[in-house]
Amino acid sequence: MPIFTSLLSWLMKKRIHQIELFIKYPHDVQAEWFKKLIGTAASTEWGKKYDYASITTLQQFKERVPVSDYEKLKPYIDRLRKGEQNLLWNTDIKWFAKSSGTTSEKSKFIPVSNEAIEECHFKGGKDMLSIFFHNHPESNIFGGKGLAMGGSSTITEINNESYYTGDLSAILIQNLPMWMQLKKTPPQTIALMDEWESKIEKMAQVTSEHNVTSISGVPSWMLVLLKRILEITGKDNIIEVWPNLEVFFHGGVNFNPYREQFKRIIRSDRFSYMETYNASEGFFGIQDRTDHDDMLLMLDYGIFYEFLPVDQLDNEFPETVELQDVETEKNYALVISTNGGLWRYMIGDTVKFTSTDPYRIRITGRTKNFINAFGEELIIDNAEKALDVASKKCKAIITEYTAAPVYFNNNENAAHEWLIEFDTPPENLDFFTESFDNALKSLNSDYEAKRYKGMILRPPIIRAVPPKTFYNWMKKHDKLGGQHKVPRLSNDRKYVDEILEIIGRAPE
């Protein structure tokens, strides 16, 4: 183990130096990747369609290749899943990461090349550890095992070739080198189970007996596992189960609504939380500072970035900006071209830059996950900051939430209806509502204008729903598992009305 740890330490220090280089020369690194991606894909069907061979400038690329979403690339992806190759990328695509669906499909299937696995996702995982060790040189997380919550996968045989579909986490687990598999828990047979409730039970039974030093996954589902482990072991907190536990590597959703719950069950002043921005489409960011929760934009993972100002989202020909032209505190939709064959692909996330030297970002929401029914332009970032303010004022802890508009009727003005599942409810829900409303006004001038004297929006309607409401709703829709997340904000009432029906309440 000392030799193994020494070798890892040397590799991690070497990688930190490389990270410092792309921090110093960000635009050069991105320009190199742009040329490499275009050159590599020139012989593909997509590359020939847009004559990549003759592209010499980014402006030519932007003029020829449209900004795409999943629906525009789906015909190519469908053909890839049937066994055709050399369509979007020049090496064989055998892996497809199953992601949450679109308006017309239950799921998206993101092509994952071997290059994307090695140069992007695995590199991001190694960098996550390198940065953690750089910030915590005394760490001994390799003295124990890492617990990772993986999804499930299926195999399809086409013309005697195997094609794999599953959660990104499952794809990565199946491609881990042997030495990494030995440092992980639970074993693959459990980690890749597809029946989520049985998997949670088996994971809790098996992992509680190991020396776990790090955990990684989506906060909402990790909480379910940790609470079950406490029930099984009869312990008061997780450190009693795993005394050497050091860090939670988390991503997938905003961590703030879950922070207090984790602090309650992981009672350690030495425990660290580290955010990552890892999606089916790529690995984009890592929290590189212990005293800030923004993330360093990772620039050498085979991804070329463009940024679309959110006020351009509805334009037929939207104008993206390059990395060197972004501004801090401005909302952008992320547009990527990747070594997995995604070209000018808008993944649906919005980000703000907190710094441009180096480039650091914070996720602010989704391009289609907001409320703008009355011109209020309420985004997830506003909602979660306001909920945090109200929770601290009222000493409340939120488990999950969702919200939707209430439209005008003959007697009352419009409103926003919030369904909130509390771990610790506020003593006075009216005061919580007032605090939340005031915080939203201070964060969003459009919301404040619509709330002026209640002329358009009356005060928010907040309903405290029973424990496990969201869990039961997701189970009903077969959406248990790491890739599935509670939809936070919506412009229609589909989710809210479904949940109200489950708990036996009439909608507004």
Summarize this structure briefly:
By secondary structure, this protein is an alpha/beta fold. Helix content is 39%, strand content 23%. The chain has 18 helices and 18 strands.
Describe the structure.
It is built from 18 helices and 18 strands. The chain is globular. The model has no long low-confidence stretch (mean pLDDT 90). The N and C termini lie far apart (61 Å). Helices cover 39% and strands 23% of the residues. With 508 residues, the chain is of the alpha/beta class. The strands form three sheets. The chain has an eleven-stranded mixed β-sheet with strand order 6-3-7-8-9-10-11-15-14-13-12, with helices on both faces. It has a four-stranded mixed β-sheet with strand order 2-1-5-4.
Radius of gyration: 23 Å
* Largest sheet descriptor: 11 strands, mixed
Report the count of strand segments.
18
Shape assignment: globular
| Helical segment count | 18
- Which consecutive residue ranges, at least 5 long each, have pLDDT under 50? none
Q: What structural class do you assign from the helix and strand content?
A: alpha/beta
Distance between the termini: 61 Å
Order of strands across the main sheet: 6-3-7-8-9-10-11-15-14-13-12
